[in-house]
Amino acid sequence: MVIVRCLDSRHDHPVETPRGKLLLAGDGLESEVIGTLSRFPPETTVLTVPHGAGLTFMSGLRSIDGTFSYLPLDLHGRYADEELVRRWSASPPDLVCLQRMDMLEFGFRGFGLDYGQAASAWIERHYVAFTDPRARIVVLRRRQGASP
Fold first, then answer.
1. Which of 23-32, 71-80, 117-126 is the most confident on average?
2. How far is residue 145 from each of residues 98, 135, 148, measured CA to CA in Å?
3. Pairwise CA distance, residues 44 & 134, whole Å
4. How many whole angstroms separate alpha carbon 37 and alpha carbon 139?
5. How big is the chain by its Cα radius of gyration, in Å?
6. Given 23, 42, 50, 81, which is the most exposed site by the fewest CB atoms within 10 A?
7. In whole angstroms, what separates CA 106 from the centre of its chain?
């Protein structure tokens, strides 16, 4: 199976994943993250914020709640910031995949900066970097002693 992310000549970096071949562009960090995630058992649950459900899917792992993204426009009602904390606390993911990206197109600086602050603080309290904490995409694991 071949999955093409975008029909664009810049997407010329093929990555083999548990679910097929993915064509990526850019710095190749996504392929590194998929490689890291792919080493975990298939039952591993992953939360990707503010988005990146494709990383979980292509790694062969499970999304924590089936939510595609946690963009500013998504955080309302059952997905409001405080509600996310309640849901995540009740069923915490094994891993968190945090992408550092600005949300200027939505009128925000970024997840945890000026929106999603309660959710971001919850992640910070319960998870610690598993991969390079300075990278654009960081995989976090549960802190020692943190509740399951």
1. 117-126
2. 21, 25, 9
3. 24
4. 8
5. 15
6. 42
7. 19
- The pTM (predicted TM-score) of the whole model is 0.80
DSSP conformation letters of the chain: -EEES-S-TT--EEEEETTEEEEE-TTSHHHHHHHHHHTS-TT-EEEEESB-HHHHHHTT-EESS---B--GGG-SGGGSHHHHHHHHHHS--SEEEEE---BGGGTBS-BTTTBSHHHHHHHHHHEEESS-TTSSEEEEEEPTT---
Tell whether the model's pLDDT for residue 117 goes beyond 70. yes
Q: Quick check: bond before 14 cis, omega within 30?
A: no
Structure tokens at 13: 């970096």
Which one, of 21, 97, 112, 31, lies nearest residue 62 by Cα?
Answer: 97
Task: List pLDDT tens digits, range 75-89.
Answer: 777 678 888 899 999
- Looking at residue 146, its amino acid is A
Give residue 25's pLDDT band: very low, low, confident or very high (50, 70, 90): low
How far apart (Å, rounded) are the C-alpha atoms in residues 30 and 23?
10
